[in-house]
Amino acid sequence: MKRNLLTAGFSTLLAVLPIACTQLFQPCGSGHIPDTQALQKNLKGHIYTLADTIGERNLYHEEANRQAIDYICNEFRSMGYEPEQQAFTVGKEDRFGPASGKTAVNIEVRRPGTDPKAPWLIIGAHYDTRAGMKNWHDTNGLIPGKTGTPGANDNGSGIAAVLELARIFRHLPTRSGIVFVCYANEEPPFFQTEAMGSLVHAGRIVKELGKNNIMGMYTPETLGCYSPRVNKKRKTAMVAGMAGLPDRCDYVAFMSTNTGRDFSRRCASLFTEQCRFPVRSAAFPYYTKGVAWSDDWSYMKYGIPSFAVTDTAYLRSDDYHETSDTPEKIDYREYAEVVQGLAKMTRKLLEAVPTTKD
What we know:
The protein is α/β, with parallel strands linked by helices and about 350 residues long. It has one domain (about 5-350): Zn peptidases (Aminopeptidase, 3-Layer(aba) Sandwich), CATH 3.40.630. The chain contains eight helices and nine strands. It has a nine-stranded mixed beta sheet with strand order 1-8-7-9-6-4-5-3-2, with helices on both faces. The longest helix has 19 residues, at about 35-55.
């Protein structure tokens, strides 16, 4: 995730919709949404593998990057999917440094719906981590030899969520189909450039499916912080409180621009109906370099309604974009509740067709 509220002023504030909610639990098993204990175990396993066993993973650490790709693909295969590795070449630009001209890979799987005419939903997150730069908020200026982040929360938590949602919906029929994607190159210096993996994917899938055949997209982005932390980074973005993102850790945020406002609010309402975890929905106007949280920006550029599901990252935790973004910092119980809520929200959104009695 890239910091953007640092440059957002009061003129960008459009709408805030705080919502409280209640939880319904369901048993594990094929055709069901698992309970939070089962989700915790799986989510924790993914994050420890990505952030602890593999560690910093990006085009500046090619072996670790390949290990992350292989891990994600193997997980998808274990669920019965056949992942497609969609390769693309990073442009030869000075700002990309040693990654210039290298090959990056997006990973995609699809779970078709029961109605071939129904529009698709895209759920995607980035697997790359922040490279070593001078400051946590820098957008370029790679420092050779400087250690980057292991990326437990940003964005191992997002990838783990995508994997578990893919597992859940593998045997949970819905009227609409789902495209699950794991992206390369979200972090600087690739953010909001032609080398950003989600932008490449957005262009390809809009061309293939057509914009009218895509209902929307959401990205799980930094989902693991729900306990009070010392937070000095938030002081640089106090406007966030007035935007409806208070200095507390007791909610998950659905963040969008105007393009995704209605879709985000609809999803927030569905989340509210299914989950006890509080959600806050906030939308901001999009200006040239305005508010964009993560890979949702790429689909917004193509006119696809999109939003980020996030714990608000640097607005909540000083571990954001630091070497301290490690697996033991994740609040797994609350994190699992959020992922379970996303599964139930998604099922409602896509008009699930039950195959067994809940």
